[in-house]
DNA sequence: ATGGCAAGTGTGACTTGA
């Protein structure tokens, strides 16, 4: 079972690039972020024609997540638990049943968190957009604990907007005051990992220089000035099934690319 | 150190992203 995460940066602008990649990579499931579309406007037919079931959790203009799956999607839920006042569309879950195992899939688009405000000491304030990011990560940790307690193959995958380590950025020093790389951000990410999740890509590859995002600006792609912020976190039961994990880097060099590329795992499920 | 781009909304010039 091949499962991918892909921040597509707008479904309308990415139909061609996304369907081209689907036809060639043949994933069973794609967790999509930043669909930037309401549910009614999502171009389902392009994917249903290729045999994918489509579940969306969209909003107008920004954010929005979706799941495309060749397997039936069961028990679909929308929204990250823990704050009924949060109206941003950043979380969707569903279960797929493979030949040997059922797998719970959580697709997420974690808040960016910039700009960060600092006090006079240079300490980031837990306020505004950065406060929302850290609060969202606390809710993610709570959902992660509940998921682990189920003791089933499950994953939380998506655009985490977290650079975990210096080796995950071409120029780590340029991110030091950024919400994606502040110590508080990285600590919150580690707290979740340390509950017992396997970060799929790092479990298979320890070398630096592997990225999943290159900014559209300042020739970031041509200079390979990238960061690795799209992650798949696997429960122990899912990690036991993992056979492969890769980043489809070359997708970034095509026509009308997203600024992110797909990252995928295969599970013996 | 700075500025650089793309997408959505909606048709001009913003907001947001990372």
TrEMBL record:
GO molecular function: double-stranded DNA 3'-5' DNA exonuclease activity
Statement: the UniProt record of this protein carries the keyword Hydrolase: yes
InterPro entries: AP_endonuc_1, Endo/exonu/phosph_ase_sf, Endo/exonuclease/phosphatase, ExoIII-like
Superkingdom per UniProt: Bacteria
Domain Endonuclease/exonuclease/phosphatase: 4-260
EC code: 3.1.11.2
Gene3D superfamilies: Endonuclease/exonuclease/phosphatase (3.60.10.10)
Key words of the record: Hydrolase, Magnesium, Metal-binding
Leader sequence residues: none
NCBIfam families: exoDNase_III, xth
Protein name as annotated: Exodeoxyribonuclease III
């Amino acid at each position: 079972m091949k499962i991918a995460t892909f921040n597509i940066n707008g479904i309308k602008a990415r139909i061609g690039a996304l369907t081209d990649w689907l036809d060639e990579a043949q994933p069973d499931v794609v967790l999509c972020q930043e669909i930037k579309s309401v549910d009614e406007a999502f171009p389902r037919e392009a994917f249903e024609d290729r045999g994918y079931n489509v579940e969306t959790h969209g909003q107008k203009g920004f954010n929005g997540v979706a799941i495309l799956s060749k397997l039936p999607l069961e028990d679909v839920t929308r929204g990250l638990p823990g704050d009924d006042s949060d109206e941003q569309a950043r979380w969707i879950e569903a279960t797929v049943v493979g030949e040997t195992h059922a797998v719970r899939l959580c697709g997420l688009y974690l808040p960016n968190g910039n700009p960060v405000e600092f006090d006079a000491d240079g300490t980031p304030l837990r306020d505004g957009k950065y406060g929302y990011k850290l609060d969202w990560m606390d809710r993610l940790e709570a959902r992660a604990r509940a998921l682990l307690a189920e003791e089933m193959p499950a994953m939380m995958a998506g655009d985490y907007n977290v650079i975990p380590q210096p080796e995950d950025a071409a120029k780590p020093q340029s991110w030091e005051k950024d919400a994606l790389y502040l110590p508080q951000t990285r600590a919150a990410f580690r707290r979740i990992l340390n509950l017992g999740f396997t970060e799929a890509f790092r479990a298979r590859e320890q070398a630096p220089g592997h990225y999943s995002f290159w900014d559209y600006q300042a020739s970031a792609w041509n200079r390979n000035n990238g960061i690795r912020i799209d992650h798949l976190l696997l429960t122990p039961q899912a990690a036991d099934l993992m056979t492969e994990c890769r980043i489809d880097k070359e997708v970034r060099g095509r026509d009308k690319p997203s600024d992110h590329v797909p990252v995928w795992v295969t599970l013996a499920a």
